[in-house]
Amino acid sequence: MKEPGKKPSQQLSKKQLKSPIFIIIVVALILVTFQIYTVGPMAKNISYSEFKVLVKEGRVDTCQITSSLIRGNLKDEDVPQKQKEFVTARVEDPDLVKELEAQGVKFAGEYESPWIQTLFFTWIIPIAIFFLIWRFVLKGMGPAGGVMSFGKSKGKLYAQEDLKYTFDDVAGIDEAKAELSEVVEFLKTPHKFTSLGGKIPKGVLLVGAPGTGKTLLAKAVAGEAGVPFFGISGSEFVEMFVGVGAARVRDMFSQADQKAPCIIFIDELDALGKTRGINPLGGHDEREQTLNQLLVEMDGFDSNKGVIIMSATNRPEILDPALLRPGRFDRQIVVDRPDLNGREAILVIHSKGVKLDKDVDNRAIAAMTPGFVGADLANIVNEAALLAARRDKKAVGMAEFEEAIERVMAGLEKKKRLINKKEKEIVAYHECGHALIATFLKTTDEVKKISIIPRGVAALGYTLQLPTEDRYLMTREELIDRISVLLGGRAAEDLIFSEASTGSQNDLEKATEIAKKMVKYYGMSDKLGIVTFEQENRSVFFPGNFGTTKNEYSEETAREIDLEVKRIIDECFLRTKDILSKKKDLLIKLAKILMQKEVIEQKELREILDKENEENTCTDKDK
Fold it and tell me: What is the pLDDT of residue 579?
């Protein structure tokens, strides 16, 4: 209750009164007051010679003589009843006592013990002040800041009212939610499983690409079950002091056991759980001790108490096998990239608090963002809202979403970057070459936009292609067509200018990479046959593979692979150049339009192509 007549700003809360800084200030004021009233003299400080004069004049009423000071009272000439205090330093004076007796001054001596004063002010008070600072300031810093708290777990305990997430806030990963619903049911009704002799998995490992919603999913499980949630990162266990990480693991499990039923969530498990024995320097380092303690604790506690361990990682291939065996993280749930329907559902969730225009179609936005995860989609919604606010719009429209997608995929638009006329012409023909090849081939994605406005760090132009549906497999023909599209820019430059520029570097890297995978991984080479020569995504952290770079095939085979990759690239380039040679007039026409407008949208590109087809049809009829 607030006191009447007082504003909230005038009142000190209990938290403020108990704060370490407030207490230190109060103690300092008390010490200063003590110093003033006990040690520091309140009387007027006079010289000894002046004191002797006052004695002779009969103005000194009383005085107390110590080993170092003389204190006393002076008679006020104007008001006899009023006295003034004085203090002066004592000087060895044999005649002082006689003079005081002669003037009738009442005096007395005081015995002092110097060692008591020295002990009190030199030792007791400084030690007390230091203790107060240690007691209040360091304690106020919390478990992470205390000197004696290295072994305390840094896990943050989320109260139930802080866990506002449920399964309704998670979309696009329905299979993972269905798997975790069993964990929720166990936390709510454990007797349903234990009565039949069943045991819930001790650990649940969430595996997926960054941004797919692994941490959000873990919080949603705790929110659905209504249990406490301990959240900590794998890197927070390991310190430079040996033994600290293991102590933190013990403390975390001890806290969780007291709060059961609850969930322990270890984010970025790969920072803690890398395969042991791969340290190139050898030795039993701090990280391995921490991992060993985690393995022991996971074996030692009873999951039927209601303590569930959940972890997330995007690098499962480097985890220690002992972590993944039954009895520890014995259930692995893949949190995959969302499909078209999943992306649409995620967009609906992230756009709840955003004012959308009527023309916004979440389905169309989802179709334009293949391969995007939840974090990417949340970023797109935020970027679109910022763009709309920058343009002083009352609602976020489809144009802002499309621009936000381009910004994420191609980089920030740089309209003020000056490009000379020759370079602009080369970029225009380069991008038109990409667009025409993508249009004329059967298996390629549709062209959404052609632009020669620089974006990002080094992109002077770009051709945006968007798939019409999600794809999980690709045929040999589709890979060949994709290489041809990548080589379309280089072929257009060679056809028009009879020379090449450095603008094809990134295209050539991608095309060569696809050709290498066709030969080495996919067995799509007629000459080398259906053989794979390397294992894709092979981790160097597994035992026996540290630092291994040697190919598992002969030098002769390596030469044949290089020749086969070159053959695929050369054939695709000749094919691409042949297509553009037949459509050279259209290439020149499209490039001139692009140089004039700088951007050609999908609708305008279709109109240009349809008009060109009509003209060619009329010409054929006239012939």
Answer: 94
Q: For residue 124, what are its two tokens?
A: 């007791």
Give the integer Cα–Cα distance in Å for 518 and 564. 10
Considering the candidates 431, 509, 560, 614, report the single residue annotated as catalytic. 431
With contact defined as beta carbons under 8 Å apart, do 487 and 507 qualify?
yes
Burial class (CB in 10 A: 0-12, 13-18, 19+), 560: middle
CATH code of the region 156-334: 3.40.50.300
d(CA 602, CA 449): 6
Distance CA 580, CA 3 (A): 85
pLDDT of residue 481: 94
Per cent of the chain over pLDDT 70 is: 76
Rounded Cα gap, residues 298 and 311, in angstroms: 13
Burial of 398 (0-12, 13-18, 19+ CB in 10 A): middle
> Mind listing the pLDDT tens digit for each residue in 289-337?
888 888 888 876 665 677 888 899 988 888 888 888 888 888 888 888 8
Q: What is the pLDDT of residues 390-432, one digit of tens each?
A: 999 999 999 899 889 888 887 777 766 667 888 889 999 999 9
First to last CA, the chain: 97
Nearest to 401 by CA among 387, 415, 411: 387
> What was the pLDDT predicted at 528?
87
The four Cα atoms 381, 385, 387, 389 give a dihedral, to 10 degrees, of 180
Strands (E), 314-374: 331-334
The two structure tokens encoding residue 483: 């290489």
Q: Is the pLDDT of residue 577 over 90?
A: yes
Say if residues 114 and 69 touch (Cβ distance below 8 Å).
no
The token pair that represents 207 in the structure block: 């595996």
Q: Which residues pair with 85 in a beta bridge?
A: 73
What are the angstrom distances between the C-alpha of 529 and each of 511, 522, 533, 536, 560? 21, 10, 11, 18, 12
Least confident of 87-91, 390-394, 417-421, 525-529: 417-421
- Three-state SS for 371-411 is CCCHHHHHHHHHHHHHHHHHCCCCCECHHHHHHHHHHHHHC
**The token pair that represents 22 in the structure block:** 């407030």
pLDDT over 60 (residue 139): no
Range(s) within the chain of domains with CATH label 1.20.58.760:
421-539+553-622
Distance CA 318, CA 274 (A): 6
Class (C level, CATH) for 43-109: alpha beta
One-letter amino acid of 104: G
Q: Model's pTM, two decimal places?
A: 0.66
Architecture in CATH for domain 340-410: Orthogonal Bundle (1.10)
Q: Which of 116-130, 174-188, 371-385, 408-422 has the lowest mean pLDDT?
A: 116-130
Fold classified for 421-539+553-622:
Methane Monooxygenase Hydroxylase; Chain G, domain 1 (1.20.58)
Q: How far apart are CA 583 and CA 367, in angstroms?
A: 30
CATH 3.30.720.210: which residues of the chain?
43-109
Tokens of 315: 């690098």
Q: Are 237 and 249 in contact (CB under 8 A)?
A: yes
pLDDT on residue 151 = 47
Active site (annotated) includes residue 297: no
Q: Across the chain, what does the average pLDDT equal?
A: 79
Looking at residue 349, the DSSP 8-state letter turns out to be H
How many Å apart are CA 271 and CA 76, to the nearest integer? 82
- Rounded CA gap, 333 and 312, in Å? 10
